[in-house]
Amino acid sequence: MTPNRGTGSQSWTRECESVLTLEGLEGALSDLLHQTHQLRDAVDSWDRLSPGGCCAVRTGSSWGEAAPATRPPILCYSTPVELKELEGLRLKVDILRQQTRLHKCPSRSPAGAE
Q1: How many other CB atoms sit within 10 Å of the CB of residue 3?
Q2: Distance CA 1, CA 9 (A)
Q3: Rounded to whole angstroms, how far apart are CA atoms 100 and 44?
Q4: Given 3-state DSSP classes, what are the helix, strand and coil percentages for the chain, each rounded to the nearest 5?
Q5: What is the pTM for the complete model shown?
Q6: How far is it, in rounded angstroms, from Cα 30 to Cα 64?
Q7: Mind listing the pLDDT tens digit for each residue in 14-31?
């Protein structure tokens, strides 16, 4: 009878381990689903703020337009307001870079204007 008791105890232990593993997997799945919803919301927010899904990307040392199929890196924002603020700051940086480039260019005066 002792071997039966040991076998029963081993099967009960295995069953407990299986249940704990299942619970852990359910928790991981729940976390992944939550992250997926957050990412989907971030993409939807991006699409609302930047129709067409295109954004400027850095290629080497210059900026160029991305192909329409290319998506920006997906980032999670706590609020749409935070995303709008980030896009506003990005626009300001682009404007400052453009102004810097214009100041670096030699100014050309029209012929005979001197």
Answers
A1: 7
A2: 13
A3: 33
A4: 65, 5, 30
A5: 0.38
A6: 39
A7: 999 999 999 999 999 999
